[in-house]
Amino acid sequence: MAISGKLRKLMEEGSWVRRMFEEGIELKKRYGEERVFDLSLGNPVVEPPEPFRKELLRLAREPVRGMHRYMPNAGYPETREAVAAQLRKETGLSFTMDEVVMTCGAAGGMNVVLKSILEPGDEVIVLAPYFVEYCFYVDNCGGVPRIVDTDEAFQLDLRALEGAMGPRTRAVVINSPNNPSGVVYSGESLSALGDLLAQAESQYGREVFILSDEPYRKLIYDGLDYPHVYRYHAASVTLMSHSKDLALPGERIGYVAVNPGYAGRAELVDGLVFCNRILGFVNAPALMQHLVRVLQGVTVDVGEYQRKRDLLYGELAGMGYETVKPQGAFYFFPRCPVDDDLAFVEALLEWNVLAVPGRGFGRPGHFRISYCMEDRVLEGGLEGLRRAARKFGLRR
Questions:
Q1: What is the pLDDT of residue 26?
Q2: What is the mean pLDDT of the chain?
Q3: Residues 6 or more apart from 9 whose CB is under 8 A from it?
Q4: Tens digits of residue pLDDT in 224-279
Q5: How many CA atoms lie within 13 A of 215 on its CB side?
Q6: SS3 378
Q7: Distance between the two ends of the chain, CA-based, in angstroms?
Q8: According to the model, what pLDDT value does residue 91 have?
Q9: What is the pLDDT of residues 180-199, one digit of tens each?
């Protein structure tokens, strides 16, 4: 057997997003790309903003000597300081470069943090619906994922969280704006979560971290203020990726930021730097570090995503789909018109529409669609969803 039995099992349970993406490739071969409406993948079609292109061209024309060499495993000091300056501006807290480690995206950052804080058998609470890879990351680092449902509006269920806490609880992973629901957790709920974790720390005599995965932090709508987690719990760490806010998913550039108010931050950052190396990342990509250093205050056009969100929300509601209106990110997570979400997603293939079943995010009975697509794809997808709504007895 070429691979381990454990890995074989994990692969069988693997990402539904990737499965639907691969299904889309086959459909496009069969029917042509223009007749397939792939809403399955959060792969932005928008191009990086103009300042990115300008800086990339400048570096190509005026390369800095040694710019592709190794640097400290934490990343270039000047890039870390630029990140810290942006965090000071956004949060009002006293971030310095010493609280920042540049990473291979938020995914690389999550693995680095989990490797740094987990003992074998420690539990990590993961809130459903969730990005499916979280459970694999926890397993990578010897931990045990503990799945806890959010409420019907996909907000934190404090009672369920309290019931899941135990002596082996080491961290709670939050993702806001959330993939797949687009929900932003309120400051009030984060404050209550912080109180709950302080209680657990006192009861069980060990620190419990909040790990806040924030690749969509800058993609929020309707003038909503983003509640940064640092103010609600000292042992808090954020993981950022520029995949979405700068439309650079293939460049794998992000960072980990440790709460400057956390007493153990120096030791934790030392652990992060060490794990960045021993997990094989070594350092975040050098060229991207040079680029994002001057782009910390830059974001893609959020208004364009909000326009798409508003279009889809009106159309889906008119068809009879029940869905929470996203406050950020670029996904909808409607309830299926039938109990079996996989059967519904397979039915959509009749009209060459690809979506992801809710079971892939730990929340059966729903399906996820992404709207970071061209309008042509969204319009074709909506037509398929409209036909599915008629077939399964929804309005219109």
A1: 76
A2: 95
A3: none
A4: 999 999 999 999 999 999 999 999 999 999 999 999 999 999 999 999 999 999 99
A5: 27
A6: helix
A7: 52
A8: 98
A9: 999 999 999 999 999 999 99
pLDDT at 396 over 60: no
Question: Distance between CA 243 and CA 216 in Å, rounded?
Answer: 9
The token pair at 161 is: 């969280």
Per-residue tokens: 287: 């060229």
Strand 123-128 to 169-175 pairing: parallel
Nearest-Å Rg of the Cα atoms of the chain is 21
Nearest CA-CA partner of 344 in 393, 396, 308: 393
Distance from C-alpha of 289 to C-alpha of 255, rounded to nearest angstrom: 10
Tokens 């979405």 belong to 244
Q: Which two tokens stand for residue 198?
A: 């302080």
Beta strands 169-175 and 209-213 are parallel
Q: How far apart are CA 307 and CA 38, in angstroms?
A: 19
Distance CA 17, CA 129 (A): 14
Q: Which segments within the chain are labelled E, that is strand?
A: 37-38, 100-103, 123-128, 144-149, 169-175, 209-213, 236-241, 254-258, 331-332, 353-354, 356-357, 367-370
Give dist(CA 76, CA 285) in Å, integer. Answer: 10
CA nearest neighbour of 44 among 365, 349, 344, 330 = 330
pLDDT at residue 10 tops 90: no
**Close Cβ partners of 7 (under 8 Å, ≥ 6 residues apart):** none
Strand, coil or helix: 180: coil
Taking the complete model, does pTM exceed 0.85, yes or no? yes
Query: CB within 8 A of 377, min separation 6: which ones?
Result: 37, 38, 39
Q: Which residues fall within 8 angstroms of residue 188, CB to CB, at 6 or more apart?
A: none
The rounded distance, in Å, linking the Cα atoms of 67 and 126 is 39
- 283-312 pLDDT, tens digit each: 999 999 999 999 999 999 999 999 999 999
Supply 131's token pair: 């990005």
Distance CA 378, CA 92 (A): 39
Q: Residue 17: what pLDDT? A: 67
Q: How many CB atoms lie within 10 A of CB 308?
A: 18
Q: What is the pLDDT of residue 178?
A: 98
CA 219-220-223 angle, 5° bins: 135
Q: What contacts 396, CB < 8 A, 6 or more positions away?
A: 318, 319, 320, 386, 389, 390
In the predicted model, is pLDDT for residue 1 greater than 90?
A: no
Query: Above pLDDT 70, what percent of the chain?
Result: 98
Contact 180, 333 (CB under 8 A): yes
